[in-house]
Amino acid sequence: MWIIDAVGDLIHLSPAMAEWLGKSTETDESQTVQTVSEQWVDALRPDPSIRFRGHQTRQITLSKHLGDSKGLGESNLSDEALTAVAHWISLGNSGYTIGCVGEFLRDSEVPLSDWLGEGGLRQESLLRELIAKHQTSNARTADILLAGESDAAVLLRRRVTAATSMRCHLGLFTPTNSSSRELALRLHDTSAPDESLTVVDGALMDAELLEAYAAPAIQSINQHDSHRSNATLLIERLDEMPDDAQLKLSQWVEVFGDHLRLIGMLDPASVVDNHSHRGKPDDPLDAQIAELTHMPQAVTGIAKPLMNLMRAMPITVPRLKDRREDIPTLALALLREAHRSGQPQKRMSDSDMPRLGRDAMDALTLYPWPNDFDELAEAMASALGRVVGDRIGRDHLPLVIRSYRVGPRTESEQEPEKIENNFRIESLDEAVQKYERKLIDQAMEASQGNKAEAARRLGISRARLLRKLDG
Amino acid sequence: MNAVQTKLWVTGPETERWFDAARVMWSTDFHPETLSSLGDVPIHKRNLRSSQPITPEVILWAGDQNGIHELTQWLHSRSPQSDHRLYIAAGQWSDAERSVLQRFGVRLIVSELTDLIAIEHVVREWSLRISN
């Protein structure tokens, strides 16, 4: 076993390793390390790529001739080479790397009890790989969510770019669903990748449970000075969090300041629409959010200090129906993603991906998307599973989407229809007589009592007008 | 109570112990069923044509000292999470493991059998909210 430091120097060689290399073990350790030639040290260094994975395994070959070039240790010069499989593990962020050679067993051949540490090294390595995959997948979904050229998409992208460039409290004004969760995780991973993350569902927490779930984060912040670290608390459905839990959260924010970073997810439908002034339906969401600051907690359901934090960097995720021009771009990106992550046997290159027909695209653009982005993603995955051939048409879309029809009348035309539906008069003859009388009166008034002139204005003969006036 | 409609599936290496605990400690409105593995959990498919109310589904994964990899791997390979499913992980997990479980969608974590009592009202309220 040997240790390489941050600058690549060999700083320790175990007695067994020294013996294997043919170095004297009688001298002290530092002297033994110094006798190892630069060529051998070079062979004992891991590849630079170890910093990505944390560990590495490969074969090393140490030429005896080169290793003994300093003339120390074994005196027999020969071309014999030492070959072995070496394994390196980097020790966290310390810069040190442990290397070892020996007989290696397959993971499955090692009993679990022999693994080191809680959960074992193997488990930890597998988890790290899984988290890395998860982060990549989050990033892909978030990128698709931000795509498009609508004003709403551009604003969303700008906000997300700003939010990822610094560590600050974030308010995501969006319903808590699969895509908004992934965006929130992406924001955390990019803005504070090394910070511990605790995710809680606000609707499930009372003060007691919140305290238990956030305990690791609070403990890490609560350390003294140099040991104090930052932590992020991601709270889904903050608007549904009970008051006592919100109070607890407000107290923590007051005590720990920015050491505790909050990422809150609030459904604008429940926070804004139900409580803002009904007379201003066209107000931008940002303006509605600003209004919330002036409203009491009893109205918004969110404690004032928390609402202020959420407004520090508000990110409003627009609904699909408010960015229809982006739907074709999003649909294609989601189709590509579904195609890419399909079953291995179905996985093919992008050129094999079916294209979206114009009829399908029209149907997607018209549909109101009550379940928003997640529903579009599901529809694309479903269409991909159903399509035969290279073109996805309207018929391959889920029934609810392909059968959706826009009503024959727009909303503004519905009012007259309502009136017609309620139409009822007592007597048609009586109503006609009244209307006729009204027109005759108007004509008489306009002609200042001249009956001949009034008859002309009404388009009838003077005799007929006289009969009507007599009747 | 609407909780009677809630599906409660118990699975994982320690299923037996946690299944018995859930049956004893949780109200009779919950009818736990055991599944031999996570692979037996029904695949969620949204039925857009159906106007039936949503059935809340609770999945209690009872792990052991072998770690959380089985659950996290399964959650990672699933389609996006559904709001009508609540994942509970049961076991003695480290802080780091709890954080990873939360990241992958687990929202409640219990370490002792008696912890089930503390979260019963939370699960019940969640179930009522989902079914309404």
Automatic annotation (TrEMBL), chain A:
One protein family per Pfam: HTH_8
PANTHER family listed in its UniProt record: C4-DICARBOXYLATE TRANSPORT TRANSCRIPTIONAL REGULATORY PROTEIN DCTD (PTHR32071:SF57), TRANSCRIPTIONAL REGULATORY PROTEIN (PTHR32071)
Keywords, ordered alphabetically: ATP-binding, Nucleotide-binding, Transcription, Transcription regulation
InterPro entries from the UniProt entry: AAA_lid_NorR, Homeodomain-like_sf, HTH_Fis, P-loop_NTPase, Sigma_54_int
Keyword Transmembrane helix: no
Segments forming domain Sigma-54 factor interaction: 146-385
One MF term in the entry's GO annotations: sequence-specific DNA binding
Listed GO biological process terms: regulation of DNA-templated transcription
Protein name stated in the entry: Sigma-54 dependent transcriptional regulator/response regulator
Domain of life: Bacteria
UniProtKB/TrEMBL annotation, chain B:
Protein name (record): Uncharacterized protein
